[in-house]
From TrEMBL, chains A, B, C, D, E, F, G:
SUPFAM superfamilies: GroES-like. Together with the chaperonin GroEL, plays an essential role in assisting protein folding. The GroEL-GroES system forms a nano-cage that allows encapsulation of the non-native substrate proteins and provides a physical environment optimized to promote and accelerate protein folding. GroES binds to the apical surface of the GroEL ring, thereby capping the opening of the GroEL channel. It comes from [Clostridium] polysaccharolyticum. This is Co-chaperonin GroES. Gene3D superfamilies: GroES chaperonin. GO terms for molecular function: ATP binding; metal ion binding; protein folding chaperone; protein-folding chaperone binding; unfolded protein binding. Keywords: Chaperone, Cytoplasm. Heptamer of 7 subunits arranged in a ring. Interacts with the chaperonin GroEL. InterPro entries: Chaperonin_GroES, Chaperonin_GroES_sf, Chaprnonin_Cpn10_CS, GroES-like_sf. It is found in: Cytoplasm.
């Protein structure tokens, strides 16, 4: 069972303290300070959305920064996801 | 008697506890936590809506996630439906 | 004496309890629960409205569902009408 | 001395109780219930307004229904007029 | 020293009681009831403004009606002017 | 060190009492009544801004009137500047 | 590890008191008065964003003035960044 985003939507999963430590971004004690970092789980097809051509610029596995207060929280099979528009993702975090 | 949605409108039916259990998405006791999951009942024709070309991307029978607070509630023959715009549907739930 | 809607406007008449029973949609006692069901009385010509091409998709006699809080109430010759934009009509009710 | 509306503007004159009776629309005692019925006094030339082509669809002498709260009230030579945009006129009342 | 309006801007001068009497529009005692009547002092060149082609439809000397609450008040050499957009002028008053 | 405005931005410097007297616009005692008069210090290149072609219509040295509450105040090397969009400048003051 | 901005986004780093002194812009004691001056750290690719062609006009290393209240604050590896849209940058500070 999985979430397949439509149009310009992107499914994200909040990075948890353990994962962010593993990736070296933050110390565990600071995890609550970074609520906008997430991992891309699935990416919509893009195309013409609301009359504008959208090319998706992130891919599954990317670590991203997204706009505060953006998106819809969804729980599926006990996991929490955030679904945002591609334009709510403002940067990719590269190693 | 049935609802025929116009333009980019989609008729949804809220998934009830029994149905969601059957589909394996949630345990009955958690049904009240997922108010945005619904099944597509009927899909408008799309086309040019508000000056923009809209291609409908869901079909009757799809399980979908839709935007909180979107849509109009309608009761017909004792059944409750939600009519939303296609752009208020953000993801399809696939098995 | 009659109302001739302009542009993308549609003249509606609220379905009353008797009529809705006759059409089989609702039991009389439930009439107050369906304030958004109405019958189309007259349809504007469509065409270019606010810079966008609008094709009218309902016709006089259609039973329709329209957006809550949409439209302007008008009384003419003792009858009450609601004038809405075509885009405020979200679905047609077919038998 | 007269008001010449610009662009998509239309000059209206509220129908008074006497006039509405004469036209048969309402009984004098109900005049205060119909504040949106007016007679067209003058019509702007239309054309490209705010980047959109507007074709004026009413003419002087038409009885019209206009949007509540729309328009600007103007007094000239002791007469009260309402100047609205053509898109604030939603229907023509025909005999 | 003079005000040269840019783009779709128009410089207006409020008609004072004496002037409006002279033009026959109002009696002096009613001057405070007509705050939206003004004389055009200078007219911007029009052209493409905010991506739309604007053709100026008033000229210096015109008596006009403008939208309430529109415009910017400016004092220059002891004179008060109102600078409005052309679209805030809704009608010309002709003799 | 200087401010180079981007796109459709214009750097302004508020006219102080001494300067406005010198140019003959106002008496020193009235300086606090004219907060929207300023001198253009630098002008952005214009071009396509937010999808629209903008041609800059003021130049360094122009005395201008700008919209109240528009712009961003910046202090550089002890001098105060206001940076506004070209569309916030409504008129040029010519001698 | 670094931030790679998408679309029309720009990663900025607030100029601290020491740095601004070094560049000669401000005296250390005045640092708290200039919260909108920052150095460009990384620049998105531009291109078609929200249906409009955006050409990025700043480059890494530029000292810029940006709109108050614009942008998203991000902390990465103990450093604070501000991510803004290119249109929120209003001027470049040149030496």
């Amino acid at each position: 069972m999985k979430l397949v985003p439509l149009n310009d939507k992107v499914v994200l999963k909040q990075l948890e303290a353990e994962e962010t430590t593993k990736s070296g971004i933050v110390l565990p004690g600071q995890a609550q300070e970074k609520p906008q970092q997430a991992e891309v789980v699935a990416v919509g097809p893009g195309g013409v959305v609301d009359g504008k051509e959208i090319t998706m610029q992130v891919k599954a596995g990317d670590k991203v920064i997204y706009q505060k207060y953006a998106g819809t929280n969804v729980k599926l099979d006990g996991e929490e996801y955030i679904i945002v528009k591609e334009s709510d993702i403002i940067a990719v975090v590269e190693d």
